[in-house]
User: Fold this.
Amino acid sequence: MDRRGAERLYDSGKEPTVAKLLIYDAENTRLKKKITQLEKNSTNSSKPPSSDNPCDKKEKSKSENGNDSRKRRAGGQPGHKGTKRHLIPVEEVNDVVHYYPKQCGCCGKELPQDETANEVCEPFRWQVAEIEPIKPMITEHQAHTILCECGFKTSASLPKEVVKSNFGPRLSSIIAYLAAVLHVSRRGTQEFCQTLLNINIALGSVQNLLEDTSAALDPIDTQLRDALPEEPVIHSDETGWRDRWLWIFVGSVFIYFQVAKSRSSKVLVDVFGKVYNGILCVDRWGAYTKYHKGLFQICWAHLKRDFRGILKVGEATESRDAILFAETMEKLRKKLMAIWYRYKKGEISRAELIKKSRPIRNAIKGSLKEHADSEERCVRILANKLLKRSKDLFTFIFYNGVEPTNNIAERGIRPAVQWRKICFGNRSDKGAVLTSRLLTVTRTCWLQKRNSLEFLVEAVTAHRSCKKAPSLI
Assistant:
């Protein structure tokens, strides 16, 4: 509307002007809410960080002291200890090259160029790592036929573990590692073998070796799956996987993945059985509450994003109720986490944690009750949902081994999400099984700080030798 149109509206009288302004106000409110929805990201909603636009410039909110904080610079932050590559002991290096000064820096006299020189301190050491051109080790197995004096010809047979494949266990494990950990495609793996390893391999052979590795991991996968129901605390999450869903279950010392065709509670029944007696640490996805009737821990990291989202809605619509609710809940959340971190550092005991958190827990419940009848829809819905599940907000306060967030599951599943962005998921059931087994083993090794490649070599070697598979428990 231009100025002339605004003047005509003003001259039309009170009622038409008020009616038009109300229409404009409703449209303005609707557009603000739509903009808020479009601006949702991992900091103010349950969207994963991988869905954020890397081009978006995210400005930090005001710090606790009220000053505007600048955007964090890339790299290590102030106070970060940092890491560096340490020198290898001199007895473990392949070659040592000695350098001696040729002449004195003062009088110019020539100095000895060997160990006879009068060395006064330890030499300065500088190590250079290099990889020589890789030459594959080819082993040829020959089965001979011998003619006996009786005239009968007898042929030797090759060992079963030899004839199972033209490629050894380590090469098979490297190919599995490239797929599961580095997310290299089949063609990329073929090029890697040809260019870096000097091994000619067909695409079909790459796939066959992956399937052979999948068979080797079958008993390991089964062992972890059977151990899941006995875990006292499980962190779980799920993400889309082409036309399927990828589920993650994090126990005390292992991670189990399951590629399923649904996101329903049937998957939980399939994995845990009809009843799970432990504690589930999850977000508020309905499949968990439908299945599990025991103890929960609702993720406070998800709630933090929810509070930020409501604050954004409140600022866009100028809703005092939404702003008050979001700011109050976030303030109480920070206080609760501060006490929790004191307990984690060993500064206070479990009994003190329970005692000191009681006023905050009561304040959180009070805030939820106060806003249960809020006129702002998003506030009312979240307040009522959390009020019904209020006991599940504080399980970590009373039980050992329970964390207030589901971060371990989200960290565990993140590489799988990155893999999905490259491969777009699996087309077949066999491929889905391969994916889940590879992720289970490699991410469990990550959790246990083990070398996943060496474990894969051990598993494939045991499989081809018909020996007992190694264990991750």
In short: Residues 14-38 form the longest helix (25 residues).
